[in-house]
């Protein structure tokens, strides 16, 4: 039995090891690359970086630690999945009635889950974030305690993103795609209390926790529904803001194309789509590290999405005022750190420029591939 | 209550020329984590015992009873299983296995 104190100590050690990996080992690797590549680095592509780095012992250690510290976080002796497996009788009752009260939560037990979503356990979360009733607790705990923020508060990321949105607009009808356990949705329903907020996700365990958290916070302007972001079931023009946080890179290019088409459909003319994701990769070294991260962290669509021409994709679906800009995940961390391994946080924003998204030529229509749910 | 789905076994990713190193790294890190957790717990216990005046060093060296020995053996077996499991080289989750290289990567424009 893993006691709370043992879990805390075990996770503390893993986080400490991750911080060393993020700073000391990464810096060492970066310096080694700079020394070996010299002036050629500016002309390097990903394959060139790989030729320099992949045979270095330090890189092998870097890659090993990236893979296995994450594995240990979930599946190790003091892993979160094991801990909540042992505590399911204690934690699950609090979510028991969340579906029955005030309609804050809508689950669809028969909703078909895409194969790309179920075939890989993203983040090395055993069984994925969807299959186990305690998955929401595991995911939430992992996001809260084992992200090496180097003194910064990870919750700040979502709050700062919401503030950035608030500088652009005062949304009234917000759709948060892939809302997970509601961490990204919470700042929206709190900051925009006059707005109606909808959070959708494929994971029932995460949605239960999201609804429970919102109710505990006294929120009355939010609903959580189990729906596919590529086929939301909402009427056309239902929202003036469609947003997502860390969703795009988990979606393969083809469903992502459908997702963007769907976002355009449910936005009202002039509405905005604003995503916080990973895209800004300023050089081949950053790209090489990011592609490796995707592979090692069980996030296989990171690379293909990073290689997409996102601007062209958005234009094709009728978006204008497209901006793709790096975003600092926390105050003081900056956006171009070369001394720390950080994910390439990026804000992708655009405005729907015409009534109805442009229709696409030569593509299978969404409705022929998915079972459309009832309109809300 | 619905538990996590069972996955088929997949071979773990490899990072070193000799897979033995990958396995041994796993053993080492698993051991290091447990070492840290135990150190944390021993420090806590010692502080508590010293504060209350109950620390009896001699009792720590006393022989185990038969019942205690059984429990200790079970505990040791569980510890050894956890420690050595990385040597099997199997993924804990459903992901891509084996080695990969980006040496021949060519960026393709997508739209």
Strand order of the largest sheet of chain A: 1-4-3-2-5-6-8-7
| Average residue-wise pLDDT of chain B | 85
Overall pLDDT of chain A, averaged?
Answer: 90
What's the Cα radius of gyration of chain A? Answer: 21 Å
Low-confidence stretches of chain A are 356-376
- Helix % of chain B is 40-55%
Largest sheet of chain A: 8 strands, mixed
Strand content of chain A: 5-15%
**First and last CA, distance of chain B:** 43 Å
- Structural shape of chain A: globular
How would the blueprint of this fold be written?
The complex is a heterodimer of chains A (376) and B (111).
Chain A: H1 4-37, H2 46-53, H3 57-75, H4 80-86, H5 88-91, E1 105-106, H6 115-118, H7 135-145, H8 155-168, E2 173-177, H9 185-191, E3 196-201, H10 204-216, E4 222-226, E5 239-245, H11 253-266, E6 267-278, H12 284-296, H13 302-306, H14 310-316, E7 319-326, E8 345-352, H15 366-369
Parallel strand pairs in A: 1-4, 2-3, 2-5, 3-4, 5-6
Antiparallel strand pairs in A: 6-8, 7-8
Helix pairs in contact in A: 1-3, 2-12, 4-7, 7-10
Chain B: H1 19-52, H2 57-60, H3 66-84
